[in-house]
Write a structure and sequence with these properties.
This protein has 97 residues and is mainly alpha-helical. 31% of the residues lie in helices and 0% in strands. The longest helix has 11 residues. The mean pLDDT is 75.
Length: 97
C-alpha cells in the first residue's frame, strides 16, 4: 500500500466522522490532571480499595474463606495494618507524585 491508499481507507473508515477535532482546549501537555487526591495504592485508592473485604479481590477472598478470609492466616496480611497492606500504605500510598 502506498500512503495515498491508506489515507483514503482512513477517511472512509469509522473514524471519518471525527476527522476535524479541536484539541486546543483543556490542560496543556504534561499538566497533572489526575491523582491530586489519594494515591491509587492507598486503602481508599483505585487499586487499594479492591483489596478491602468488600472490594473485587478482597471480596473474592472473603467468599473463598479459610486462610484467605480477612482474619485468616493469609488474608490478615493484606489489611491496611497487616504486613503486606501496611508496607503498601507506608511506601506507596503516602507518596503523591
Amino acid at each position: 500500500m502506498d500512503g495515498d491508499h491508506s489515507a483514503k481507507t482512513f477517511e472512509q473508515g469509522a473514524n471519518s466522522a471525527m476527522k476535524d477535532q479541536e484539541m486546543t482546549s483543556g490542560p496543556a501537555a504534561g499538566d497533572k490532571t489526575q491523582g491530586t487526591g489519594t494515591s491509587i495504592f492507598s486503602k481508599d485508592g483505585a487499586v487499594g480499595k479492591m483489596f478491602n473485604a468488600d472490594g473485587a479481590i478482597g471480596g473474592t477472598a472473603q467468599k473463598v474463606g479459610g486462610p484467605f478470609d480477612k482474619q485468616g492466616a493469609v488474608g490478615q496480611h493484606f489489611n491496611a495494618d497487616g504486613k503486606i497492606g501496611g508496607m503498601v500504605q507506608e511506601n506507596l500510598a503516602d507518596k503523591k507524585t
